[in-house]
């Protein structure tokens, strides 16, 4: 597991989203360390120079919480505040639900806690959104292969298209243009390459992303989307266990997935 560990004081963990790595928090790291905090920013599994497991189901919230628990034990931090964006936000809720003794607080940007309120998970639910051949992007990304190959043929152009889609510079007009594929379309039809990286993104950071995706491809990072419902069911189980064992419990039963916790010797600074 690759991570940054800077500063001293009350510890804060930063978790990035897709298609980023720990470097996305560069401005926040500077501010937090200047404000008297120890900052730990990790590359989630499947991203950057952290491990990229080959098993498609090795990217659930249980696995990522296991990674985080192993790292915090290795660093001996004590309770931490966890801040996450997108997949990092969904992950941030995990330790609060499953290992509450390790968490002082959660700041989740753009993703609510995965608390079960519906009979099916989000990925399964999106399959029935349209009956005219259109597909919601999350449904499209469930298929292993098409998006992996499409993005992987030109990581530099793909990353420019993804970040352009996420930015204010993308004139969507209708949110459907960003998130819904018409029949016959592929992801880069709705996330086209603008020909240059975003003006707000430093070249050196962009190049670290390009290098990583040229080396590893996109399958690991896309696996988070493909485990949306597995993670949802895991959170559902964790919520049920919390109710059973009490809101103050910090000793929830550890599922088999926590075998994903690795020896501390495999935790390393980037």
Automatic annotation (TrEMBL):
Hydrolase recorded as keyword: yes
AB hydrolase-1 domain location: 10-113
What keywords are annotated for this sequence in UniProt? Hydrolase
**Pfam families from the UniProt entry:** Abhydrolase_1 (PF00561)
Q: Which GO terms describe its molecular function?
A: hydrolase activity
Q: What is this protein called?
A: Alpha/beta hydrolase
Q: Which source organism does the UniProt entry give?
A: Paractinoplanes aksuensis
Recall the taxonomic lineage recorded for the source organism.
Bacteria, Bacillati, Actinomycetota, Actinomycetes, Micromonosporales
């Amino acid at each position: 597991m690759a991570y940054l560990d800077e500063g001293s004081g009350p510890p804060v963990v930063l978790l990035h989203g897709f298609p980023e790595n720990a470097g996305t928090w560069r401005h926040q790291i500077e501010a937090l360390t200047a404000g008297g905090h120890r900052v730990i920013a990790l590359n989630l599994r499947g991203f950057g120079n952290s491990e990229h497991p080959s098993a498609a189901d090795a990217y659930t919230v249980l696995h990522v919480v296991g990674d985080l628990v192993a790292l915090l034990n290795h660093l001996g931090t004590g309770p931490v505040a966890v801040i996450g964006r997108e997949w990092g936000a969904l992950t941030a809720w995990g330790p609060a639900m499953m290992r509450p003794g390790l968490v002082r607080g959660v700041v989740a940007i753009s993703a609510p806690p995965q608390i079960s309120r519906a009979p099916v998970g989000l990925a399964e639910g999106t399959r029935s959104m349209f009956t005219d051949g259109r597909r919601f992007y999350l449904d499209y990304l469930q298929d292993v292969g098409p998006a992996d190959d499409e993005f992987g043929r030109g990581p530099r152009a793909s990353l420019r298209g993804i970040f352009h889609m996420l930015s204010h510079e993308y004139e969507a007009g209708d949110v459907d243009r960003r998130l819904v594929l018409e029949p016959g379309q592929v992801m880069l039809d709705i996330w086209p390459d603008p020909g240059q990286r975003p003006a707000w993104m430093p070249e050196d950071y962009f190049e670290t992303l390009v290098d990583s995706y040229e080396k590893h491809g996109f399958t690991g990072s896309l696996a988070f989307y493909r485990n949306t419902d597995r993670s949802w069911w895991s959170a559902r189980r964790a919520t049920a266990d919390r109710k059973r064992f009490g809101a103050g419990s910090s000793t929830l039963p550890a599922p088999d997935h926590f075998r994903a916790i690795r020896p501390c010797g495999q935790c390393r600074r980037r």
